[in-house]
Specification:
Elements lengths: L4 H15 L1 H33 L3 H30 L5
Length: 91
C-alpha cells in the first residue's frame, strides 16, 4: 500500500496531536490554576486591608474567617500547581 506525501503528513500530524494531548491538557490546567491563584491572592490582600481598617469586632471576625478560607484555598492551589509542574508542565 503506497502512501502519498500529503497523506503521510496528515497521519503524522494526527499522531503527534494524539501523543501530545496529555501534555496540552496539563498545560491548560496549569494556566487555569495560575489565573485562579492570582485572583485568590488579590482577594486575600483586599481582605487584609479591610480587616486592618475595620473597628467592629463582629464584622472583623467574619472577615478574618473568610480570609482563613481564602488562604487555605490558595495554599491547596499552590500545592496542586506544584505537583502539576513536577509532572512535566513548565511555563
Amino acid at each position: 500500500m503506497a502512501f502519498n506525501k500529503a497523506l503521510k503528513k496528515k497521519l503524522l500530524k494526527k499522531l503527534k496531536a494524539y501523543m501530545n494531548a496529555d501534555a496540552e491538557n496539563l498545560k491548560q490546567q496549569d494556566e487555569g490554576l495560575s489565573k485562579v491563584l492570582k485572583k485568590l491572592k488579590k482577594k486575600e490582600k483586599h481582605l487584609k486591608r479591610l480587616i486592618a481598617a475595620m473597628a467592629d469586632g463582629e464584622e472583623r471576625e467574619m472577615l478574618e474567617q473568610e480570609l482563613k478560607v481564602v488562604h487555605s484555598q490558595r495554599k491547596k492551589g499552590i500545592a496542586l500547581l506544584s505537583s502539576l509542574r513536577k509532572r512535566g508542565v513548565s511555563k
